[in-house]
Amino acid sequence: MLVLKQGLLKFVWFFFAVWSAVIISIIAYTSVVYFTSPYASKFIEAYVFFILFMMLLYFLSSKYMLLRIAKSVEKIDEDKYRVHTLLSHYDFCKKDVISSRYGQIKIDIYSGKIQLKPDEYIDTTPKGNFLEEMLSR
Q1: What would the mean pLDDT of 25-31 be, rounded to a whole number?
Q2: What own/partner pairs with CB < 8 Å and gap ≥ 24 does 92-96 have?
Q3: Tens of pLDDT, residues 77-93
Q4: Which CA distances in Å does 67 have to 87, 111, 128?
Q5: Alpha-carbon distance values, 57 to 15, 25, 54 (Å)
Q6: CA distance 8 to 31
């Protein structure tokens, strides 16, 4: 089983919290400035467009952060594995695992790719050969 190092996991959650706070504060500040302006009724379309844009930006970036960062990878069966992200989990087979030339491991799931950097994970198997076993065909 591969497990994300605790320091990196805490950093990811901290970064997500800060990112959420920044987006919420930008929306709140814009709302305060907009509603205290004497020209508020003239620029309602721009205000709505900006709020929708910020919400879309937040949704897409949060989706990437929470669904594409692997928390752990475990073996279920002889050929089946499960990757746990911060929000969900996905099952995959050995044929869905690709090793890139830069040392990253890419797991192809139905909604995209999850990339693992081997130096960011701790191998908890007794022999310490989980990556080699996962990459073998």
Answers
A1: 92
A2: 94/134, 94/135, 94/136, 94/137, 95/137
A3: 888 999 999 888 999 99
A4: 6, 9, 26
A5: 16, 14, 5
A6: 34
